[in-house]
Amino acid sequence: MNYRKPFFVLLAGVLLLSAAPGRSQTFENPSIQGSSSFAVITDSRTARECRPQMTAYKQTLEAEGLPVYIVSHDWTTPEQVRDVLRKLYAENALEGCVFIGDVPIAMITKAQHLTSAFKMDERDHPLHETSVPSDRFYDDFDLQFVPQGTPSQGLFHYYEMSPDSPQYISCDIYSGRIKAQKAYGDPYKQIARYLEKAVAEHRDATPFDQFVSYTGHGSYSNSLIAWRDEQQLLDEQFGDVFSRTHNAKFLRYSMQPFVKESLIREVRRDDVDMMVFHEHGMPHRQYLSGTPYVESAEDAAAEMQRSLRELARRPGSGRESAAKRAAEKGLDSTWYNRAEEPEMLRLDSIADLRTGIILEEVEAIAPNARFVVFDACYNGDYREDDFIAGHYIMAPGRCVTTFANSVNVLQDKSAFDLLGLLGEGLRIGAWAKNIHILESHVIGDPTYRFKAAHPELDINSMALKRNNGFWLGQLDNAIPDIQNLAMIRLWENDYPQLPAILLDKCSESPYSVVRYNAFRLLESLNGPEYKQALMLAAYDRFEFLRRIAVTRMGRIGDEAFISVLIDVYVRDRNAARIVFNISEAIRCFDKQQVEKAIETYFADKNFYHAREEKQELLDKLIERNELSPGESSTREILDPQGKPRWRQARISFLKNRPYHQHVTEYLTLLGDEQVPEILRVRMAEALAWFNLSVRRHEIADAGRKLLARGNCSPELAKEVQRMINRVESKK
Q: What's the pTM?
């Protein structure tokens, strides 16, 4: 992370700076002085068409004490924008920016490890689909990108992450994006209306004391234990703010057959400060619920008929699939043969619409929740002309800011980090800056903030402090998320005693949010303290921390974890997501070692159902032909007679399930010049995902020897170098 100068002098006025022959960037300077600044980055026409509203927005922020630059230009490359931001950061203590209108979109490849889940094959799919639209290009100055060589397409510019880039995200500034939606008509009128709304909400800021969370069908394996813990976290992060009846609601898809109407009612409430949707999503839709729970045989039959009709309508072999599924359940064709009748199409369409919110409905919904978090895939995909998060802020209503993802996102991802700081009045962008992944974005005004619960803290100034001495003094702050912010700042500063501090927090803190934050920072450092933290976390009272711990044990592959995974599997049988993650994790270990540990564990166990649970665990170690999944996959990867496409697919799967016990075979393939080049390149890509593995140093050493040998093609050499940098990354 780069560090900026702490103070600067500002002069009001307009300055023209040359960006290219015959063109100029227009800078409108702040009219106040301050210890930090903010930039509005916009295109020339939007600046002209929305001049009164941009001026009002600038004046509003400056009335809050935040100096504002307005920089307009007919931008042709993302580098132009990044250069402006770097300069303002270095010379004028820039803390954040917002992109309004037609500002270039950086499309990133070769950085999927910085996403939570996105792993689309970058060779087998179109570049536009495999690229992640990400404003980390703009707000993390240390990341290094190389142009793809593919011509830009309108606002879209294609880059790959350099092999020599830092391998982690640590944003220098915060950012937000305000983009007009095609369906809403004139883009300049939209942006003008939005800025008027943003100004009004700044002037009418309310305390953070009305919260709604919704957990949709399929989230966290539908685990009630995972859902329950969110309520505990809110109490930790906000004290007694939500002790009153009904000012915090935690809703779940199973509470009603169709929960959509209730959610619309909640998001339209004029008093809601923040609403969170844990759900599945696409750019055009929020998937709120699945097949509704029913109580009568008649309703169950009706749902089965609807499901079979839906299957029968699928292109190609839909009717054949419906017939097969019906036969499996002892049903005949009368259960689906009316699929194409107009009345059935109408009724099924209505039923389907009740399970989600689509783009066309958002304008009429007119969301009033000031800040909406979409913990979902693609709801923030600003590649599209219209997308859910964009519709929420541009629709009528008081929603001014959203937080959403531009591609698919992992379910086992924290959605609660540092939320307590929002209650202290931290700007939403400054909050997001500390928790970003490649795909996460603030859509809307990043400077919006709630009325501070403790204004004497001056949280926005505090968050900009860098001094280790100050943050060491905040490690025992009464507000848990200020403790968390202190740990993050010390991590950014590479404070040498931090690992011991983090381990102590994992062991001693009474706050789940603090223990989790310390745990994730220890993971990024991946030193000896992390193993100790994992042993503690596997038995933590916080379900999410236990869930992440058992997952990471599989990604590390230390055999000391095997007995812990077995024990937690038995103890935590009611935690559906933990059981699922352990089922995946134990496959990353040597089968014989796991079988031996299972036999040892159950040797003296006589609890009810012990024999069945033992066999259940043993069965998870076998895929087919009495081989473990690791043995089966590795055999297919190494088979010279195997189909190249299938061998490549098996290699790519190692990104999801690292078989540490077979690293020696994988390194042999990587170094074998008789193996087809594409398989070696794929293997280098896959081994880069072994960054937590106990064998990561072997992987790096093998990579260096391979490069020293000097017989690598440019593509293979680049991927091997990327592999080395990934597995040896210090953060």
A: 0.94
